[in-house]
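Bug #77: duplicate submission created two jobs. Keeping one. Sequence:
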Amino acid sequence: MAGEAGSELVAVVREHLKKAKQALSSRSNMDKILKVEAVHAVSETDSLLNKLRGMFLDLECMLSL
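Kept job's structure:
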């Protein structure tokens, strides 16, 4: 179960990073929608990484019992 959740998180994080990279490497970088998506992607990535950190901390606590 944890493996599936971890794989799903990794896939979502990769998709968000792909959007951010596309926006940041865009030649014009003036596409407002793309910029908004990039900002959203970075925020979502940060949130997901925090969740992942929490999952690892929970697993660490469970393993140390």
